[in-house]
Amino acid sequence: MRINWNIMKMLGLCFVLLVLYAFSGYRSGLKKIKNSSIEFVGDENLYLTQGTVNKLLIQNYGNLQNVSKEKLDLNNVEKAIEANEMVKRAQVYLAVDGELTSRIVQRKPIARITSDASFYLDDEGKRMPLSKNHSARVPIITGKVSGDTLEDVYEILKYINSDEFLRKNVIGIHIKDVANYQLKFRMEQFVVNLGGVDNLEEKFNNFKAFYAKANKDKTLENFTMVSLEFNNQVVCTKI
Q: What is the DSSP letter of 69?
């Protein structure tokens, strides 16, 4: 029986490669984490600090330095970081040189609710606790806060934040009742009665047309109330 040496060579080569691969994986698993770093992505305002994240990781995993790579589940580390109420999303990865990096996207507040319990409303319409590290400059929400009214306020805020003029000028929303909302502007003394969240685009377009004309005529200071509650109308109350 003749031996096909070409086949034997190929089999031998495959065996050597498998051994090298297994050995490489074994050596990689034995490598230790040398250091760790934390990166905050996006908003420069830090509602939690690197120290807070490090403390959280130590509480869950102890000192990560010199822990072998095979003993660390990166998915679990991400979940531990995302459990913090200030975190929207976390990505954790381990570099070849042994550095563990945590990239963190914070939640973004779009309003501050002042009621019996003060808190933020984030850009997903969810409640977000206040931070000891940074106070966000966002519109203030007052009045009758409830689940239903906060849903409406979130819709109003989404529209305001999509419009440059409104985003720069609206500094507060007062909830008189369900479907009865008032807006406060940065430089003006009058209050804007918005009514409900129906036809927001039409209401705000009418208001901006009124504002542009009154500003040109220098009559903005003559009004105490501007109502957008009526269909396709702006009704004003003068001083």
A: G
